[in-house]
Amino acid sequence: MMPSFRARLPRAAFALSVVLSSLWLPLPAHASLVCQPSGERPVLKLQAANQTALACDLQALESLPAREIVTTLPEALGMPGKSRWRGVSLRLLVEQLGGNERHQIELTALNDYSVRIPWSDLVQYDPILAYRRDQQPIGIRDKGPLILIYPFDRHARLQKQDYVNRTIWQVHVLSVR
C-alpha cells in the first residue's frame, strides 16, 4: 500500500501546500471594486449574490477594459447594417461580481424584460455590454444606453432565435445569484 501524499510531506510543507493551493481559488469580489461611480447618472445596477447593489454610471463602465465587436445584428433586432460595438465584456463583469459557472446571470431591461445568460455563452462567445455603436453613445431611443451584443458574424450558430432573444437592450440591471 502506498503512503498518502500527506504522509510523505512534513507537517509544515503540507500546511504551506494547502495555503498556496488556496491562492488559486477565486476570491469573493465586490461590486464596489468593479465600478467606481463618478457622480454621473447611473445606467447600470450591479447586484451580486448576498451583497448590496451598486449603481454604476457610464463613465465608470467606460473606465473598465473595453472590447469591440464588429457585427451585423439579426434583422429581427431592428438595427440594420454592420456596426462597431464597444463595451465591457459581460464575463468580466460577472467574474468581478464573484460569478462563475455555478451562478445564474440575469440581465433586466428598463421595461422589466429579463433574460438569463448561460455561463457557456460567456465562455464561447464573450458577449459585451455595449455602450457605444460606431463610436457614438447609444441613446435610450436607440435601445441604449446598454445593449448585450454577441459576435453574430463570427458564429453561424448565433443566428438562432435563442440568441436573438438574449440580445437584450436598455439593460439597467445585472444580477449574479
How would you describe this protein?
The chain has 7 helices and 10 strands. By secondary structure, it is an alpha+beta fold. Strands 2-1-10-5-6 form a 5-stranded mixed beta sheet. Strands 3, 4, 7, 8 and 9 form a 5-stranded antiparallel beta sheet that branches. A hairpin with a 2-residue loop joins strand 7 and strand 8. It is globular.
How far is the N terminus from the C terminus?
Answer: 45 Å
Major sheet summary line:
5 strands, mixed
Overall outline:
globular
Based on CA atoms alone, the radius of gyration comes out at: 20 Å
Question: How much helical structure, as a percent, in the residues?
Answer: 10-25%
Strand line-up in the sheet with most strands? 2-1-10-5-6
Overall pLDDT confidence: 84
Number of helical stretches of at least 4 residues: 7
The residue ranges in which pLDDT falls below 50 over 5 or more consecutive positions are 1-32
Element string (H = helix, E = strand) = HHHEEHEEHEEHEEEHE
Provide the β-strand percentage band. Answer: 25-35%
Secondary-structure class: alpha+beta
Q: Total strand count, please?
A: 10
